[in-house]
Amino acid sequence: DIVVLGSTNMDLVTYVEKAPQRGETVPGRELRTIPGGKGANQAIAAARAGGTVSMIGAVGNDAFGTRLRSTLEHSGVDTDDLRTADGPSGTAHIVVDAEGGNAIVVVPGANGTLDHLSPGDEGVIASASTLLLQLEIPLPAVLAGARAARRHGVRTVLTPSPAQPLPGELLAAVDLLVPNEHEAAVLTGRTDPREAAGALLDRVPEVVVTLGAAGCLYAARGAEPLTVPAPEVTAVDTTGAGDTFVGALAVASGEGRPMPDALRWAAAAAALSVQREGATVSMPYRPEIDELYAS
Ligand code: ADP
């Protein structure tokens, strides 16, 4: 079973020709409200990929919170440990321009209240086989989650996003680190993904650096690094690609599939998600992943 400890955000997405400069007003095509947040994204991706998933997190006591919770439930995520905090839900204000580039303001809202684990959380983590972590909730809770997982022999996968330097004590409790190229560079000061992965192996036993359309690079201590290509597709929105990849990867490796195989399956899931707009709404279900993987 998979437990996700992380964020939920309502993404407020507008589509414009060109993002406004300071003092400027520009027309937008439409406003879409799309459930997101890296924690929720990974939980939904894993559940749709066929995993048994529960989510520890917090939504606000507003309409966004109600919708975030029901979206998770509709995708099959167990929300018994999702708190409702007093105050607004987390939001991400996203402006997408005609070239598909984006500018984002994140307001943590309820996610900011998650600065510690609640009494029941350790038991939930202990009963899982994999814990998925990201960095959109306060670091003390991330660290507490990783430590609880370590105590109970639960495999911990960390997506180090948003990019930031990390305390050694957190990395010491992580089994698999999954940065994108930018995050790998911030963590190591090296822009070459191979060099960055090599440097990260001094701190964690396994690393996957995701490389966008170029696929990913897998490195483990004592083994030759492995590059896994991504299926060639036409991308229309890559928001949430990394989260889809991690969610699917957790499902495949949780089923005991060897890493090269699990990575190819995760790449198929992510390739499906980038062909459609919106992070969570674009995430594929297992039969579609199996089909692209087999082709
Ligand atoms: P993030 O979304 O976290 O920035 P990446 O851009 O590296 O991370 O994408 C994560 C994964 O999603 C990649 O390893 C790849 O498998 C898949 N992916 C991303 N962009 C594309 C694309 N244009 N075509 C196919 N697969 C993609």
From TrEMBL:
Originating gene: rbsK
Family as reported in the entry's similarity comment: Belongs to the carbohydrate kinase pfkB family. Belongs to the carbohydrate kinase PfkB family. Ribokinase subfamily.
Positions with a binding annotation for substrate: 9-11, 37-41, 136, 243
Lineage: Bacteria, Bacillati, Actinomycetota, Actinomycetes, Kitasatosporales
Active site, renumbered: 243
InterPro entries named among the record's database cross-references: Carboh/pur_kinase_PfkB_CS (IPR002173), PfkB_dom (IPR011611), Ribo/fructo_kinase (IPR002139), Ribokinase (IPR011877), Ribokinase-like (IPR029056)
Binding-site positions, ATP: 180, 210-215, 242-243
NCBIfam families noted in UniProt: D_ribokin_bact
GO CC, any one term: cytosol
Organism name: Streptomyces zinciresistens K42
UniProt keyword terms in alphabetical order: ATP-binding, Carbohydrate metabolism, Cytoplasm, Kinase, Magnesium, Metal-binding, Nucleotide-binding, Potassium, Transferase
Protein name: Ribokinase
UniProt xrefs under HAMAP family: Ribokinase
